[in-house]
Amino acid sequence: MKQYNAIKTKYPDALLLFRVGDFYETFGEDAVKASKILGIICTHRNNGGEKIELAGFPHHSVNTYLPKLVKAGHRVAICDQLEDPKQTKTIVKRGVTELVTPGVALNDDILSAKTNNFLCAVHFGRKKLGISFLDISTGEFLTSEGNDEQIDKLLQNFAPNEVLVSKAHKKEFLEIFGKQFHTFFIEDWIFQEDYAEETLTKHFKTSTLKGFGVAHLQQGIMASGAVLHYLSETQHHQLQHINTLQRIAEEEYIWMDRFTIKNLELYHSYNPNAVTLLDVIDKTISPMGGRLLKRWLALPLKNIETIKKRHQVVSFLQENETTLHKLQHSMKQMGDLERLISKVATTKITPKEVIQLKNSLEAILPVKQLTSNSPNSAVKGIGDQLESCDMLRSRIKEMISEDAPVNMLKGETIAKGFSNELDELRGLAFSGKDYLNKMLARETEKTGISSLKIAANNVYGYYIEVRNTHKDKVPDTWIRKQTLVNAERYITEELKEYESKILGAEERIQALENQLFTQLVLWMQTYIAPVQNNAQLIAQLDCLCGFTQLAIDNNYKEPTMDDSTDLIIKNGRHPVIEKQLPVGEAYIANDVTLNREEQQIIMITGPNMSGKSAILRQTALIVLLAQMGSFVPAESAKIGCVDKIFTRVGASDNISMGESTFMVEMNETASILNNLSERSLVLLDEIGRGTSTYDGISIAWAISEYLHEHPARAKTLFATHYHELNEMTTTFPRIKNFNVSVKELKDTVLFLRKLTAGGSQHSFGIHVAKMAGMPQQVISKANKILKKLEKSHSSEELTTKLNDAQNEMQLSFFNMDDPLLVELKEEIIHLDIDTLTPVEALMKLNEIKRLLSKTKKASS
After folding, report:
1. What pLDDT is stored for residue 432 in this prediction?
2. Hey, how many other C-beta atoms are within 10 angstroms of the C-beta on 156?
3. Which of 225, 637, 708, 734 would disulfide-bridge 600, Cβ 3.0–4.6 Å?
């Protein structure tokens, strides 16, 4: 227990699995937690009069139990015996050989094939925050820096399994980013610039970080240094597969704030059973492809050339379906190249996985041949870069037996014919049967005992068994070993010699196999970079094959990308909703045209449930898919490259943070209005409905006006059930009215889900209530109240008021009675802005300010 307590003191935050003989034991509080999570029995033991809890499991079951502990959010320290108990008379030396945490795991049972397992660090600098992501299982190492909002977005995109934060900034981190991440708080001194730089340069064996293009990211470097420091703390020292640090170049990707990522349900949904966009578009076959697709979805491109290259590959594969099928067939034969080579680096690879790596590399050969000979330059580019790794494959083939076991103790690892010494030893160990049969025949003849039997057990080793009836025929040279009820067991010198030979051979076989296998794994480490390169190329190819399959299965079309700011979608569909319609029901497609000249803002009115939100979301998803490099669910689409997508969709209370629906809505909308750009796409759904009607209408009107008058002229779709906003088109030329059509029958309403020009006048909320099965008396009462309200607050009155307010707002800029203001107005109107230099403009502004301040003094 002294030894246990000393080790536990070093790892107070971790569950300690303490190896005792054939078991891993947990003690005290750890035992209570482990027994609950694992469903194992918690017992008590009296150690020196002190009662202590105890729970354990057999050491060979560690791969069953460890994932459960880590998935429950625990850090687990594995404490092993560091020497053979047979070699020591005192207590066995023990020490922690690995610390497994949610963000640092190499165990396949903890990892999910198509998802990265990121360890992340966030550093709070003076003005900016730094962030770093590292997946030890694939070797990806990324960094960036920015403000709260940018870091929040990256955390949403990369969904790290563990986040490291300095203890000094614990409160700050939880306030800004919430509690949904599994966090671990580390000492403040780890986030020092010199220490971080030294840690990184020492790891990469370079003198500076300029070669990685991250030298200017001071905060990012500190976060990256903290991540590497944590790996050494968790006993991970073999990290040759982490050979580069990449900058997440956010300026190259579409900006989406965290609200947009949530609202569009790209990979998570508010509803547990809902289908997300990723579920629909993921047609990848390999684990590498699955992980890369998530990255592409999180970071859609802005570079038109790169986007077009991806579209060309999809187009080429769509025309050559046989090539597509051959590529997909080869990729099905591949394992997870990235994670297999990482296991080589960390020397945690099993013989079976080495064979898997060889087979995966062999499956690359037909892919290389197909792609290198392709007429499509982008496909050919991938093929030319693939490496066939001939030496590696032939060395594995020559050394490792094709049906190698997972555990070296459980079968033949090294192939026959590779080592003469090993083959001889195996001959000795396994040709024993013949030898024993000959011995038995000889002894039977010598003694004349017909029922002799040679066998072995764990206690006495090999022995000759003689029935009691023949006891008197036993020669004097035999030594009696054991007496049974009706038989005696003996050994002879020859049998003893043979036994030691066989036992020695088995031990030598094991040692020799271990030695040869370790040599091979160390030699394989020279192939880390080429195999990682292959994995990345296969991942790209897999994603593009997936896009092609998606286009073939769902009739997606190639979009036209250009430098304009127009967006023209013909018969667009919602990629997720169309997959969930009942069989045989077609999705009602819609056209959307937006530009900065004539049709900048589209006001969509229409009843609830008519499909307004679907039209908004599908427009964003079509743009996203196009800029990821995929084809789109539309008859045709012409997309001027979009650089930011903002959405304010659906109401969600952030009650845990103490914010009402309306507050959340205003926060999200404010974030949109403060970050507009010329290429932005803005989608607003039912803004202002979290407050009273007149409040809501006023806010919605003011927001629409702001978007119209803002110099960016951002393309906007605004869905609302405030029909009063339809009047805006009379004042603002680039606002156009559309509605989602509805067919009124005698007692009911048919939602046609078709977008048509012009505003709509009804909300049909009561009809929807009726469809939902609301009691009849509630429906009739609602209709009566509605008629009364419509009489007392006619829509025309409200619209007139709004228009008056609009005119008043535009006039009240000047109080016309004041002669000074009239003079100022004249002066401003006659200014020739085109010829005015910046300095003259500042002087003119100063002059106006001085005049105004004089009148202010005079009036006071």
Report:
1. 64
2. 21
3. 734
d(CA 122, CA 399): 45
Q: What is the DSSP letter of 147?
A: -
Residues composing the chain = 860
Strands 43-47 and 50-58, by their bridges, are antiparallel
For the chain, the structural domain boundaries read 2-100, 119-248, 277-403+520-554, 420-511, 561-809, 819-859
Q: What angle do CA 826, 830, 836 make, to 5 degrees?
A: 130
CATH topology of domain 277-403+520-554: MutS, DNA mismatch repair protein; Chain A, domain 3 (1.10.1420)
Looking at residue 650, what is its pLDDT? 60
Closest CA to 157 of 10, 294, 357, 305: 294
Residue 851 CA to residue 856 CA, distance in Å, equals 9
Pick the CATH number of 2-100 from 3.40.50.300, 3.40.1170.10, 2.60.120.200, 1.20.1250.20: 3.40.1170.10
DSSP code at position 558: P
Helix axes 321-332, 351-372, angle to 10 degrees: 170
Give me 680's structure tokens. 């932005």
DSSP string for 190-235: GS-HHHHHHHHHHHHT-S-SGGGT-TT-HHHHHHHHHHHHHHHHTT
Token pair in block for residue 858? 């005079």
> What pLDDT, on the 0 to 100 scale, is given for residue 656?
47
Within 10 Å of residue 369's Cβ, how many Cβ atoms?
14
The conformation of residue 274, written as its DSSP 8-state character, comes to P
Contact by Cβ (8 Å): 692, 668: no
Helices (H) and strands (E) in the chain, counts: 29, 27
* Helix (H/G/I), strand (E/B), else coil: 644: strand
Which one, of 711, 726, 720, lies nearest residue 795 by Cα?
A: 726
Q: From the centroid of its chain, how far is CA 732?
A: 44
**Fold of the domain built from segment(s) 119-248:** Nucleotidyltransferase; domain 5 (3.30.420)
- The β-bridge partners of 604 are 719, 738
Query: Can you give the pLDDT at residue 653?
Result: 43
Exposure class string for 521-539: b at 16+ Cβ within 10 A, else e: beebeebbebbbebbbbbb
Q: Which residues of the chain have pLDDT under 50?
A: 653-657, 810-814
Percentage helix, strand, coil for the chain under 3-state DSSP, each rounded to 5? 50, 20, 30
In DSSP terms, which residues pair with 740 in a beta bridge? 755
| CB-count exposure of residue 44 (10 Å: 0-12, 13-18, 19+) | exposed
Report the pLDDT value the prediction gives residue 805, as an integer from 0 to 100: 64
Give pLDDT, residue 813: 41
- What pLDDT score does 844 carry? 79
Say which residue the tokens 């932005």 belong to.
680
Of residues 123, 34, 27, 116, the one with CA closest to residue 75: 34
Tokens 């001027």 correspond to 640
The answer to whether the Cα torsion of 523, 526, 529, 533 is positive or negative is negative
- Fold of domain 420-511: MutS, DNA mismatch repair protein; Chain A, domain 3 (1.10.1420)
CA distance 160 to 118: 5
CATH of domain 561-809: 3.40.50.300
In degrees, rounded to 5, the angle at the alpha carbon of residue 641 between the alpha carbons of residues 677 and 563 is 100
